[in-house]
Amino acid sequence: MEKITALRAHQRTQIIKSLTADQVRALNEFTRYAMLSQFHTNHYLRDTDWEFQGIVIDPLYHLAHAHRGQNLYCDCGRRLKNQFILRSRSTGHRLALGISHFQQHASIPETVIKEIKRGINEIDLYRDAILIAYARGQRFPHQAFDYVQTHRGFANREASQFYQRCLLFSQVNLPLFPNDYRDLMALVKEVRAGHRHRLSKEEVQQIVTAIAEDWRSLNRQLTLYEYQLTQAGLTNDHLHRLQLNALNYALRRHKSRFVVHDWKAIRQLNLTKARTQQAIILRQLAFYWQVTVDCSPISTARDQLGQVLISHQQARQSSRLFAVQKGRQLVQADLG
Q: CA-to-CA distance for 145 and 215, rounded, in angstroms?
């Protein structure tokens, strides 16, 4: 990563206040996804009883006392910007914590916490670089991105984090991080030079592995969303019925009954089947996004779920299917 000068808190807040609501949500989704990747890659909690289940970010935290959205809290009652969800491997008990209380509530060693904080600080620098570029008048390079899109330069790269960041930021006109911008310009040159070749077996496997990693993140998003619904008051019976409806809703589009439940299993599939599994879990997430419309207790989580769907080009229009209508009734019955 390039050396970046970190913004002071008041500078960061000032720039964020100049963004639109959609830009703030997109920036927070980038931050959330980057943190998920940090936890997946570094296995921070591997030697503890806890497993990382997900993170929720308050997009309106910078508004302080003017905040009118859904607040996030640590289990101790402290208001949070970043709420980490941990689950005990031995008991199944879940905790919603700020990073500063990992040791107090989950007995996670200080050395591990310092390692996590270093990773988060690196992501904060990445985000600051985007904010600085925005403040200087830079915006998303639509012409370059559209050129690569039109000429199918992202073919077989749809599962990559790079593509998903580009797609997400293109929707809200945020500038790319310098390294991402260079990668995009390099891809423009590659497309213009006509470099098209058949994928090797190794390249196909790399794509399948990227899809498996993305499926893993999406599955954690699904698990976290279901947990947040139960925390908001959804009964276990209604959650079970929602889970069945979500799966049936997803399988109806793909006319398949084959579903994997472990991200590692996807790495053993061919490219077509791996993409199908990715599409199925995205449809499940789209189902939950639809059935929780106007559900204020989880409005922040739903906003983040919407950003996930945008970054994967998943349609978010409302369906009139019976499963969706029934799902809304179940949610409304418990959450109002």
A: 25
